[in-house]
Amino acid sequence: MAIEVRIPTILRTYTDGAKAVEGSGDTVAELFADLETRHNGIRERIVDGDQLRRFVNVYLNDEDVRFLDGISTKLADGDSVTILPAVAGGMR
Known about the structure:
alpha+beta; 92 residues; globular; five-stranded mixed β-sheet; Ubiquitin-like (UB roll); two-stranded antiparallel ribbon
């Protein structure tokens, strides 16, 4: 099962600069474990234990997985997962 994973600029050091990589897994958690086998260190930047890190957003086909089943969200062949760091701040 092939899943396209879009990688934000800040995490591309783990993917040798690739903007997108392929992975596999039946759930988002399994997908991240699969990515870790080829891109050492990336998983710990995305998840903390069994949940997403606070300032990381993950979208499955444009839907935030936090509003689905979190990292237990089921995946299907051809799905697209986008990892986005949360952005905050600005001027007052």
